[in-house]
Design brief:
alpha/beta; Rossmann fold; two-stranded antiparallel sheet; about 35% strand; globular; transferase; PyrR_bifunctional
Length: about 210
Amino acid sequence: MFILNQQNSIANNFLAEMRDAAVQQDSMRFRRNMERMGEVFAYEISKKLKFEKFEVQTPLGLSNINMIPHFPVLATILRAGLPLHQGMLNVFDKSESAFISAYRKTKKSGDFVIQMEYISTPNLDGKTVIVSDPMLATGKSMVLCCKELSAHYKIKELHIVSIIASQEGIAHVKANLPKANLWIGAIDEEMTTKAYIVPGLGDAGDLAFGEKV
């Protein structure tokens, strides 16, 4: 598991602004910081991918360069994951994309279940797939979505990216997706009874796109 804020990285500045209650009121700034986090994650993940040597013709000769021959497929959970996804797409600019619609449905008891509406995806057979969602709270949405993808395709390698995760969410993902590679911005210890991460940053989707009704 890779934890970004355990390193000295400019990404910590982006994360601090995302958490800051005053700065995050600027939704454009919030989206851009999420996008920049995606760019950093993509750069870090790229170091673990398979590279091959290619010849590149320059105006003066040939240059041998190690490059990624097959880009990963980037998947995200709507709607909160869109800026994070875009940041990763800025780096993996030849990647195909998959989109998953999943949301919490709260029962009268206060408990909630995860509802999935649809998945739009290219063929994932034999491919490396990166699934991103800015918040990994209980981990139930992430596990449900990844298992749904795996039920239909033989994924070669699975990476999961979240900006902030709870300890409980990480444990749930590890228990249910033991082969997945986790890339986390920061881990917070607490979670409320409504499954909001503390200190967290609030509702990433609302902060990025406006409050839903």
